[in-house]
Structure formats: C-alpha cells, structure tokens
Amino acid sequence: MSETYTFAPAYELPRWPFVPPPELQAPGKTQRHPIVIIGAGPAGLTLACDLASRGVRALLLDEDDTVGVRGASSRGICYAQKSLEIFARLGIYERVADKGITWSFGRTFSGEREVYSFNLKTDSVSKQPPFINLQQFYVEWFLVDRILELGLTDLRWKNKVSQVTPLADGVRVEVQTPAGHYTIEADHLIDATGANSPIRTQLGIETHSARSTDRWCISDVRFRKPLPVERWTWVDAPFNEGRAVWQHLMADGVWRIDYQMPEDCDNEHISRPEVAGARLREQLGPDVEFEFVWIGPYGYRDHLLDRFRHGRILFIGDAAHVVSPFGARGGNTGIQDAANLAWKLALVTQGKAGDALLDSYHDERRPAAAENLRVTSRSARFLAPRSSAEHTLRRAVVELAARFPFARAMVNTGRMSVANAYPAAPHLPEGACTVQNVALQWSDGRPTSLVELLATGGSDWLGLWFGPSKTQVGALPAALPLRLVAVGGDSALPTVQPDEALARHLGDPPAGSLVLVRPDAYRAARLDTPDAASITAFLRHANSLEP
Question: Which of 426, 432, 438, 505 is 20 to 30 A from 418 via CA?
Fold first, then answer.
C-alpha cells in the first residue's frame, strides 16, 4: 500500500494595505525624493531600516503587499554573524534570535562515515553567534515592523515601477498603482528588485549570467525524530543514491533538507509528494512520522554586474549579483551590501560626505561579490564533479580528510559565509576589514558593545582611542562625522574599560593610538600618533570631502 503524505497549513503572513500616494492628488506636479528604493526584499528592507536608524528618510516601493512568497517557501534561511550584528544595530536581532535556531557546529559525512566536524564559534569574539537559521519571510517581517516603528520611511505597497529614466542630476520613476499612475524623481535610486530586475533589463545592463546543470530539490518538513541542532552535510548520501544532501533546522520545528538530483531529472517528477516522501523515508527510517511544509526544485544560476553604480542608480543584492546557495552567501551578501551603502548615502544626503563616496560602494562590494562567486563555484564543482578525474580527486580528498587534518580544508561542501575584507582603494589606501561585536563595559561598569557604540552615533565614524592622556586629545572640527571613545586612560572622553578581546581583535594597538571604525563596523585605519590634523585629514579623504 502506498503511503499518504500530508502538508502543514501554509504560513499566515501579514499583509499591509495599499494607501493612495499623495502624488495622485497632484497629477501635474512631479515630486522629488532624495532616496528611492525599489524592492522590499532583504536587501531593500535592510537599506531602508538602516537609513531610518541614521535619521534619513527614504521612499520604498514594492509591487506586492506582503513578505516572502505568501508563506509558500522558506527561501533563504541561514543568517551569518555579520548580518546578525547588522540586525543588532537595527534593533531586530532579539526577535531573530528568539524565533530562529542558533548553531555553530557542523558535521560532514561520506556515506555512513563522519569525515570531519567544525565549530564556527572557536574564533569568534562577537556577542552574536556564527549563524541563526530562520525562514526569510520572518526576517523581512521583522524589518518591516522596525521600519514602521522608526517612522522615517514612506513604505508604499502595491506600487509597481514601470519605467526608470536616468537624468543628468537624478532619476525619473514611473509608478503604477491600483488607484492610478504617477511620476516622481529621485536624487538617488537603489534597485533591490532581485535576480530578475526589470530595471536592469530596461537599461540594457549586461549581467554575464551562467546557468548550472546541477539540480536540487528542497523539502521543508516537520518530523518527530530527535536530532542535534547542527549543520549536517553528506557528500555522497547512501539514502540519496550517492548524491549530496544538506540538513538544517529552522524555526517552528521545520527542517530544511536539500537533495542533489540527477542533471537530467524532471522537476515536476522530483517534486511530487510521493517521490519526495520516498527520499525522506529512506533518510529518516520506516517509523518516523513527518509532514511536508513545502517541496520545490531548483537549479541555480549566477551573474555579476560590471558596475554596481550607474550614475544616480545603484544596484544591491541579487539585482547586482547572484551566486549559488552554497554557504549562505546570497542573502547575507545583499544584507551586507545594504549596510555598506546606507551610511554612505546618509552622509552624502546630510552633506557630510562628497558624492564620490558612493563610488566606494562599487569599489568594495563588487570584489566581495566576485569572491563569493569564486567560492561558491568551487563548492559546486566539488559537489557535482564534471569528469571522472574530478570524481577520483574528490574520493581521494574525502578519504584523506577522514584520517588527516590537513585534508579537511579541501572538503568543500559549501564554505560558510563570512564578512568580506575590502581591498585598498583611493578612499582607503589600506583597505578595510570587519570588526566583530565585542562586549564592553563603560568605566562605571555599565555594559555596552561595539555595535551599541556605533548605533548611538548616527552616521558617525567611531574612534577608539587606546589609553589617551588628558593632554593628547585635542579639539576636532565640530562638523567632523566622528565619535571618540577612550579605551582606558585618563582623558575627558567617554571611556570604556580596557578589554583584552577587543585589543587582540584589533591587532593589539599600542597605547595612545587611535583605531578608526566605519559606521558599518569595518576597521579602516590605525593612527599611532593621532592629533587633530591627522584625524581630520584622514576622515575628509575617506569621506570624499575636499581637502
């Protein structure tokens, strides 16, 4: 007798009402907005929320009236430490942590044998964990709630952009709504409409896309079998005809299981409940009860724009780059795009930085996307070898990894997402690297953290002055976007207690030195003999201000 498979009820997600925009009441007048964001996915919502947290208004347009795919699928699920630190600064981290599944430990198997394991928490000094698994629509939901709470974003649902026209000093945007059509202009327009961006297509921007023949099928499923909250990966699972499998726990007791499929598979066939159910039965055993939440096939593609900035139009998230899903380098990269761009847009809009600062968004985030593309492409080749020689090499690597530590780094089932370092560029000759959210204490014992210091500084940079004396700290120009905090010492600056983890994380700065941290929590420079002139000169150059 064939087994009957059940589906859990679809998620009930919030819907927000369409509100006729004020432009419809003045059809002959074209209103100008400083910042217009198109697309309320993770990248667009993060950007709007980040701007609002810095006191900057933006207009956000989305053609739908809800988040996710109306509860049909979980889509992205793994949120990396850098993204979680961004969420902490934006005020939604606690909701993400309370709802999601925190993990740091992973195991890799070949057949029935464990090849190796890892703990991503080993080298972490952050208050946030290495990863939290949470269905993407929850993250989007929490961002919308926070945006509405902050109150500075004009979030318009059921507003579909039909035409974008670049201007010499801005962008003209045509918008269709259920109540009619209107036209607006923007000083800067940000395309966050995703992989199939109609704006990018309309402007004829080349994506250099490539489509993989590798095929997968996702099963989001609930079952009653106690398993550890870990990332389990099989290079060649015996219950999937010797092909790869990933297994993750998400919120609401839902497991995400990705099964690699034959290249010539039929998508409709592999997604049938009876076919997906047979795979699960092979994996879980004959007596485990389970129900499906969602089943869906996917084949991935990648693309990468040559330029992330085209005049007054900037591309973020999947509109700018798409990589395969290995290692959670898709959604996290889009969130970090938004964090990189937000403070720069804020300073430019507030007149505290030159327009050329926006060029540095491309200078930093395109190399990051290119690196993620290289990493995920290598993962794809390891998981789907294209020749007998590659199969032989993989078998040798897996066999060696089971016995020798040196070979474990060669087993590539998806390098987990990390915050990219930025290369040297005209605005930052030394480049920049991420700074984790180290827990700190004020001199009176009150708790704080590096992210909290940044969050309370608006769009200002953070200067961590190690052990300054009363005479060392001079007067700085009042308009300089910088907040100074002493780490120990006897100056009149706000002071946090010396912290070994912070000092080690920042490269053990000598006493009297100043570490400059950007508003997106990236270390930009260390000035060993800082004074008002050197600090001012550095920040003016880094923010593209005239000397």
Answer: 426
Assigned token pair, 379: 């993962």
Q: Under a CB-based contact definition with an 8 Å cutoff, are residues 68 and 434 in contact?
A: no
Mean pLDDT of 144-172: 97
Instruction: Describe the crossing of helices 42-53 and 136-150 by its angle, rounded to 10 degrees.
Output: 30
Using CA atoms, how far apart are residues 353 and 18, in angstroms rounded to an integer?
Answer: 36
Give the phi and the psi of residue 129 in degrees, each rounded to 5: -75, 170
Using CA atoms, how far apart are residues 234 and 225, in angstroms rounded to an integer? Answer: 19
Q: What angle do CA 393, 399, 402 make, to 5 degrees?
A: 140
Other C-beta atoms lying within 10 Å of the C-beta of residue 293: 25
DSSP H or E run through 271:
none
Q: Can you read off the two tokens belonging to residue 190?
A: 């940000």
CA distance linking residue 333 with residue 416, whole number of Å: 12
The DSSP-derived string for 343-372 is HHHHHHHTTSS-GGGGHHHHHHHHHHHHHH
With vertex at residue 386, the alpha carbon angle to CA 272 and CA 305, rounded to the nearest 5 degrees, is 85
What does the alpha-carbon distance between residue 315 and residue 334 come to, in Å, rounded to a whole number? 10
Q: Burial, 152: exposed, middle or buried (Cβ in 10 Å; 0-12, 13-18, 19+)?
A: middle
Q: What confidence tier does 123 reach under pLDDT thresholds 50, 70, 90?
A: confident
Burial classification of residue 294, based on how many CB atoms lie within 10 Å of its CB (0-12 exposed, 13-18 middle, 19 or more buried): buried
Q: At what angle do helices 136-150 and 81-90 cross, to 10 degrees?
A: 30
Task: Report helix angle 331-349 to 42-53, nearest 10.
Answer: 30
Do residues 87 and 98 touch, judged by C-beta distance below 8 A? no
∠ at Cα 125 (345, 463), nearest 5°? 45
pLDDT for 271 = 92
**Which amino acid is present at 305?**
L
Task: Give the integer Cα–Cα distance in Å for 120 and 200.
Answer: 37
Structure tokens at 444: 């009176």
Name residues whose C-beta falls within 8 Å of residue 263's C-beta, 6 or more positions apart in sequence.
213, 214, 215, 384
Max CA separation in the chain (angstroms): 86
Token readout for 481 is: 């976007």
**13 pLDDT exceeds 50?**
yes
Tokens 């998230």 sit on residue = 317
> Coil, strand, or helix at residue 387?
coil
**How many C-beta atoms lie closer than 10 Å to residue 479's C-beta?**
9
Q: Are strands 447-449 and 439-441 parallel, antiparallel or unpaired?
A: antiparallel
